[in-house]
Write a structure and sequence with these properties.
The protein has 325 residues and is α+β, with helices and mostly antiparallel strands. It has one domain. It is 34% helix and 22% strand. The strands form 5 sheets. It has a 6-stranded mixed β-sheet. It has a two-stranded antiparallel sheet with strand order 1-4. A two-stranded antiparallel sheet has the order 2-3. α1 crosses α5 and α6 packs antiparallel against α9. The longest helix has 22 residues. InterPro entries: Resctriction_endonuc_II_NotI. This is Restriction endonuclease type II NotI domain-containing protein. It holds the Pfam family NotI.
Length: 325
Amino acid sequence: MTPEERQVFGALSVKQMEASVRSLPDAPPCPFLETLLPGARCNKRGGVCSIRKYAPGEDKAGVFVPGDKIVTTCPTRFVAEVEDGKSLFSWISEKMLDQPKPIIVKETPFLRKISDARLPMEAAHDEDVAEDVVEEEEAEKKAGRIDWLVVNPPSMQANELEWAAVETQALYFSGGKMITEFQAYAAAPTGILFPLGKRRPDYRSSGPKRLSPQLDVKVPVLQAWGKKVAIVIDKFFFDNMNKLDDVYIRGDERARRDNAAIVWFIVDYDDALRLRTAEIHYTTLDSSRRALNATEPLAKADFTNNLKGVINDPQRTNKVFKVSE
């Protein structure tokens, strides 16, 4: 990106964030979603779809930290080629459905809210009104969406439609607001600047707090339907998880797929910032829960010693309180 392009995009990002809207008429095309929907525009405020670590350089410049992983912060970033001529969905569909050219469906509702509320008696006797009310209620009841579906085209004519669910999980990040960085770029054409604010990828908000509850809701339902779930994450996310226990490790890939409820598709970035396939893991919901939690309980003795230390620390009066006698 040229210094002039950084200034243009910086100004656009400032405008977008100050307007508190997700998309603008003059937002640039999303090069990833455009592979499926020509003309699709970026709808992420500020347009940041990945982040990486920088070190301070000369004259306030930012310098890449060698060997540090790039972190995906927008799930749409995954919608890209992962091998030359092969898209993410082709890769997943090959492994899940033995079909390299699937039909792809975005954001499909699969749950709906239930309610004991009934139509008013007057409306119930008016067929037109009753139908409108029912349609409105049905629309409101739909809750819970599957990010993507890959569907095997030949099965459209079969008794059983063959498909697999695909969930894409990016990482949130914590720290200073991004608008300060955008304002710095918008001020004048410049090279890469060392960030003004401190930020870090927030794995716990993205994995245990976000993805894990989603799996608890979706996987049991889809498993009962005889369908499997593919999860797409990047290597940074995967490296922050506990170990995933693969199922049926002595079997071939088809046998492992048949015995799995969840298949993890791990992607990584090459030196040219292109997304590339990295690993596949065939596993269960329980194993996925444990891996996402990425914690283990302290020993009781360690917990007790830590607790005593907090209680006896005169600097922790903001956390330790004694009941007045």
